[in-house]
Write a structure and sequence with these properties.
three-stranded mixed sheet; binds adenosine-5'-diphosphate; alpha/beta; 20 helices; five-stranded parallel sheet; about 45% helix
Length: about 500
């Protein structure tokens, strides 16, 4: 009203049947975002976009149009007072982390009709509903993506009239938090599958875990093999053809806490692939009835976002030998295993850059059909004496700063490395933590009795951690997997390929 949009104000008052005087202006509302969020919600729920309508003006002209069955023409006054959104340049919020994108929506009706399978077009000309086949072709798959569900939803609604994802064209997002190709272009899916795909994407959402190859101590052979299997085929595709065509499945096996998950995280951090982090037990427990469909959707998504790595942790909990589990096996679980095998076969026959990385602590429990499909098997063994020494050095260096408090260690690293035969990486980490706790414990009482306000942590002087302390901790702990070691090497002799 202040700006003189009297007609518009009156129309609004009439149509909403609200007295505008009872309201005041909000200065911080992004109406378009609200609209888009509602539309995304509606889309996830019903696999279609809501039709947004407005009341037809009750003019004599319209009445006549309605009687004659024709489409009412917009009253001249309303086209003045209600500007169409598609004539404007509106700011497109994509996600919290990404910069705003200008959506210059110059949609002509023809263009909109061109995009296949456009479900509905709102009266505002917001072309947000294109589940377009052309979208799949014209978007540019980007490498090094990390699943981002909220981004994906936003992505799904930010498809321009010709089906090109606006996000993929207009900016290069922060590499640590990339958005995926819009799921709206994910074709060949029925409503149910689409819903599942949305759910999978949510479940496997993962930020780059920030583990570098150099953060992994020892395991040189395993690192080299993983690089050979995953990194190089993507980097030098021309080399990896014919007899050298890339492995499709790789199994990391060995005692718990030796760095298998760490290796997978390094792949996620260092490789330019979309990384699907799937904990097998989650699939099984959460998706009892739907696990089999979930597996199919997972592989389809992986192909769609290729190059991709699917990491299946705790594989034995999903792929134990079929039919042996205490007599009768759950029907759904058997179907799911079969589906996983079928999908792995599909990978083996195709040129898709989709790669399965599996980890297991109990390889002898794995189904033999699954094992055959994990062509490359790598033992991630307990750390060597040298690696154990480096680990203690890494976690307890002579001087470190712990939240402003200096931690000093005077340790005979070689001796400690030698004394911890049979300890896994995570065992050693625990021992280091325990050893570091000892001097801290000594002063905790004093700290607790301190008057609040004058406890300045940086003034505290902790005792130095000594070799004797450390050895004492060792005698009070047991390595978690020592007695299994022989079982792994025996299995290795029988099953490891090279
Ligand atoms: P698993 O083999 O059971 O998957 P993880 O990879 O989860 O074991 O390792 C557990 C933890 O132990 C890691 O988060 C890491 O802190 C430590 N760890 C184990 N092995 C290593 C290693 N080789 N280098 C560095 N840290 C390690």
């Amino acid at each position: 009203m202040e700006k003189g949009y009297v007609d518009a104000a009156n129309a609004l008052e009439q149509e909403t049947k609200l007295s505008l005087r009872g309201f005041e202006v909000c200065d911080n509302i992004d109406l378009e975002t609200i609209l888009m969020e509602y539309e995304s919600y509606y889309f996830v729920k019903f696999q279609k976009y809501p039709k947004i309508t407005k009341k037809v003006l009750d003019t004599a002209e319209n009445k006549q149009q309605l009687r004659s069955g024709g489409r009412p023409r917009r009253a001249t006054s309303s086209s003045h007072t209600l500007p169409r959104l598609n004539q404007q340049t509106v700011q497109q919020p994509v996600s919290k982390t990404s910069p705003g994108i200008t959506l210059g929506s110059k949609s002509s009706t023809k263009e909109s009709n061109d995009s296949a399978l456009t479900l509905e077009q709102s009266d505002f000309g917001l072309s947000i509903s294109a589940i377009s086949k052309s979208g799949g072709d014209s978007t540019h798959p980007r490498k090094g993506q990390v699943m981002d569900f909220s981004g994906m939803i936003q992505d799904a609604v930010s498809v321009s009239p010709n089906g090109i994802a606006l996000n993929s064209l207009n900016y290069d997002p922060d590499p640590s938090e990339r958005l995926l190709k819009p799921l709206s272009a994910f074709i060949g899916m029925t409503g149910e599958m689409r819903e599942l795909a949305m759910a999978v994407s949510k479940d496997i959402y993962l930020h780059k875990p920030n583990v570098k190859w150099n953060d992994i101590i020892g395991l040189d052979a395993a690192k080299r093999l993983v690089k050979e299997a995953v990194v190089y085929p993507i980097k030098y595709p021309q080399l990896f053809t014919g007899i050298l065509s890339p492995w499709k499945g790789l199994l990391l096996y060995g005692p718990p806490g030796t760095g298998k998950t760490l290796l997978a995280k390094a792949v996620a951090t260092e490789c330019s692939t979309t990384f699907f982090n799937i904990s097998a037990s989650t699939i099984v427990s959460k998706w009892r009835g739907d696990s089999e469909k979930l597996v199919r959707v997972l592989f389809e998504l992986a192909r769609y976002h290729a190059p991709s790595t699917i990491f299946l942790d705790e594989l034995e909990s999903v792929m134990s030998q079929r039919g042996t589990a205490s007599g009768g096996e759950h029907e759904g679980s058997r179907r799911m295993k079969t589906e996983l095998l079928v999908q792995m076969d599909g990978l083996a026959r195709s040129d898709d850059l989709v790669f399965v990385l599996a980890a297991s602590n109990l390889p002898w429990e794995l189904d033999s059909a699954m094992l055959r499909r994990l062509e490359k098997r790598i033992l991630v063994d307990l750390p060597s004496k040298e690696a154990r020494k480096v680990m203690v050095q890494h976690w307890l260096p002579p001087l470190s700063n712990n939240g402003g408090v200096k931690l000093r260690a005077d340790l005979d690293y070689s001796l400690l490395g030698q004394e911890m035969d049979g300890y896994s990486g995570s065992d050693i980490k625990l021992v280091c933590k325990e050893a570091a706790m000892r001097p801290v414990r000594k002063i905790l009482d004093a700290l607790e009795n301190h008057q609040p306000g004058n406890g300045n942590l940086s003034m505290i002087q902790l005792d130095t951690i000594t070799t004797a302390d450390f050895l004492d901790v060792i005698t009070h702990t047991k390595p978690s997997a020592k007695n299994l070691s022989q079982k792994y090497t025996a299995w290795q002799r029988e099953f490891e390929s090279v």
